[in-house]
Structures are given as C-alpha cells and as structure tokens.
Amino acid sequence: MYSIGIDLGGTQIRAGLFNENGEMIKRNHTLTKADEGPDAVIKRLIEIVETVQTDRKQSLVGMGVGCPGPLDVFEGTILSPPNLPGWEGIPLRAILEEHFQLPVFLNNDANAAALGEYYFGAGKGKQNVVYMTISTGVGTGIIDNSHLLLGNNGSSAEVGHMILNPYGPLCGCGNRGCLEAYTSGTGIVNRTIEALRLSSMTSILRNKETLTSKDIFEAATLNDPLAVEIVKETREYLGAGLLNVIHLYNPEMIIFGGGVSKVGNYLLKPSIEFAKEKAMKPLADNLLFKMAQLGDDVGLIGAAALVKYNKAHI
Q1: HEC secondary structure over 115-159
Q2: What does the DSSP 8-state code read for residue 36?
Q3: Farthest-apart Cα atoms in the chain, separation
C-alpha cells in the first residue's frame, strides 16, 4: 500500500510517493509561484502529484498535505497563510479529493513534521513527543499519548507565540515578546539589528551588509561582545520556552529541527540545562532531547505520515 506526501510551501511544491514504512519511492518538485494565485498553484500541485503516482495509482490509500497555517484541519480548508497570498478559505482537501478520488488529509507543516519524526525518525517508539522547529519562525507539533494534539480547529500548540515578555521585541504575529521573537532566525537578526542601532559597543557585525543568524552565532564564538549578549539572551528565552513546554505537555522527548537548531549544543545545551534544572519534579526525569533525523525531507515524509496517522485513528 502506498501514499502520497505533498509539501506545499511559499517557494516550492514537493510531492513524494511512499510505502507504508515511510520509504520514498519517487519524488518531484516545482516552484510554487504563489503570486499567480490559488488556481494556478493548485493546477501545478495536481500536475506534480500526477508525475509521482503513475505506476502505483491503483495501490494508493490516500494523500497527506502539509502546508503553512492558519488552517481549519477538520474542514480541510486553508484560511489565510501569509506566504500564500489570496488563499483565503480555499477548500484544498475537497478539491484534491474530487480530482484524485482518494482520501486527503490536510494539516500544518509543523504537525506533519512531528508525525514524520514520531513514526519514522527520532521519536520512533515514543508516545509523548514534542517536535520543535526553530527556523525562520518557531513551529511545534505535539504527540500526546500517541495522538496528534489539534485543539478546536487544528491550531493547537502554537508554542512559538507563547508570550515570555509582554514588553519584549515585536513578533511577526503582532504581539510582543513571543518565543519566536527571541529564538527564531528572524527574531535573532531583528534583535541584533536593534542592538547595533542602540549600542555603541564595537562589533564585527557592523561590517555586514546583510545579516544572518549564522553570522551572529559565528561572531559570538569569536567573543564579539554584542553577539555574545544576543546569544546569551536567546539561550535564556529558549530555556524558558522549553521549561514551559515541559510543564504544559510532560513529554518523553523533545525533538529539535530547523536551521537555527543546527547550531547544536552551542545554543541548545545551556537552554536544555536551564529547563531541566528548573522543571518541577518529576516532569524532567528521564526526559530526552534529540535532533530531528529526517533532515530536509521531514515536511514531505511528515505529509505522507498524515495518511498513516489518520488511517489508524479514523
């Protein structure tokens, strides 16, 4: 039995054919060209899916689609994702089900990635897992006693938008002091630009025409004083966020994915130590922290995992 995984992003559409063990048999991709609007993007999505399903069409049991929120998971509707302009109330599940005559399962990309790691990656064999991707933003998927935590309309576990400091830096969501504003790549860069503007502190970062979070971490390892302060603050707020996650969800394992997390122990170790030290007993006892194992394909594998999960829980 086979399934299709579809990773719909603002830049690329990727599709893959998977067997029941999560092994990718065939894949393809194309540019999203989101500025052309929903109809054109959906046409390209259908075309790319048709290229990967050809020789296994009769054995397909369903399709999973991971995409940015906000969504209504239960209705299968894309509401208004910032990087897909014009996608307001688009019933993507119904459109794809009508065309392919297969069950389609739609969920946000962080939830899909969480399921991918739960079934086929670092979380395999665990029942209570938090997947946290720290990249341009901060996304989270929660597996609670082997069930994907969804909430009222599938928008549960927006950990990146828990407010840690109501007077902190502005977040992309419009609030201040969110975890994302402190720990995402975007947030780290924005805070550094503001610090460079307000501080007279010498810094090698002043010579950068375009600044990335990688630049900031590299400068900190060279003991650049301003970068060191930014990284110290990032660690502290990530530690506070992890502590809240532990208290809220009591996981067996927290899995880190995303580009910022690839900095590794330089960022993560102090944050983890803080969270474990401050956590109420016995919530942090035997708690494991791991890096994601599925790499850049986590979204695609996770989309296929949506089929496996929904087939098991319907």
Answers
A1: HHHHHHCCCCCCCCEEEEEECCCEEEEEEECCEECCCCCCCCCCH
A2: G
A3: 66
Average pLDDT over residues 246-250: 96
Q: What b-and-e string marks burial along 176-198, b requiring 16 or more CB atoms within 10 Å of the CB?
A: ebbbbbbbbbbbbbbbbeebbee
d(CA 37, CA 69): 17
Sorted by where each starts, the structural domains of the chain and their CATH numbers stand as 2-109 (3.30.420.40), 125-292 (3.30.420.40)
Q: Give residues with Cβ within 8 angstroms of 296, minimum separation 6.
A: none
pLDDT for position 312: 84
User: How far is 190 from 170, CA to CA, in rounded Å?
Assistant: 9
Q: How does DSSP assign 234-300, residue by residue?
A: HHHHHHHHHHHHHHHH--SEEEEESTGGGGTHHHHHHHHHHHHHHSPTTTTTT-EEEE-SSGGGHHH
For residue 8, is it left (φ>0), alpha (ψ between -120 and 50) or beta?
Answer: beta
The answer to whether 234 touches 269, Cβ cutoff 8 Å, is no
pLDDT of residue 10: 87
